Amino acid sequence: MKKTFDKLPEGKKQNILFACIEEFGENGYEHSTLDRIVLRAGISKGGLYEYIESKEDLYFYIVGLTYDELYDFIEAEINHRSIHLPDDIVDRMRLVAEIAIDFYIRHPHYLEIIVGTYHLPKADLAAKAQSVFMTRFLHLFGDADFRSIPHPREEVLNLLTWMLLRTRYDFLVEYRQNRDEETVRNRYLAKWDFYVSVLKKGLYQR
Hints:
- It contains ten helices and no strands.
- It has 206 residues and is mainly alpha-helical.
- It folds into two domains: 1-53, Homeodomain-like (Arc Repressor Mutant, subunit A); 60-202.
- The longest helix is centred in the N-terminal third of the chain and has 26 residues, at 55-80.
- The radius of gyration is 19 Å and the shape is elongated.
- The N and C termini lie far apart (47 Å).
C-alpha cells in the first residue's frame, strides 16, 4: 500500500478495508475485482489507485492484516486468561484452536480470506501467501518442543499446517450450513480432538 493510504482519516480507511475484506472473502483473489471494491467502498477507481500499487498489492495487504488480526486476538486471549502455552506442539495447537474458533465465528470473512490463500491461481502468489502465514505461525508455535517427536520438524509442521487448513475449511462449510454457534464450535473442537488423539498415538512413535 502507498503511504497516502496511511494518511487517510480513520473512518475512510476502515471503510475501504471492510470493502476489500468482503470482496476478497466472498470471491477469492482470482474472482475479486477492483470495480466491485470501489463500489462497496463508495470511492472512485482512480481514488483507489492513489492508495494501492495493484490488485495483488492490495490483496496481500489484506492477507497480512487478516493474519495480524487473528494472531493478535489469540495472543490477547492468552494474556487475558493468563494461559500457559503447552510446550508440546500438538497440545499447543489444540489449545490455540479452542481460542481461534471464537475469532472465526466473529469474523467469518477473515477466515474466508485465509482459506482462500490456499487456492491462489499462480505458484508465486501461493508461495507469497505461505510466507505471510509462516511468519505469523512460527511466532506463536516456533518455540514449541519437538524433542519427543521422532520425525523431522519440517514434516511435522507440514502435517500440522495441513490440519489447520482442513479444520478451517470444514468450519466454513459448517458455518455456512448451520449458523448455530454452539453447534459449529462443538463440531470444530470435536474434529480437533479426533486429530489430536490420532496424532498422540502415531506421531510420537517411529
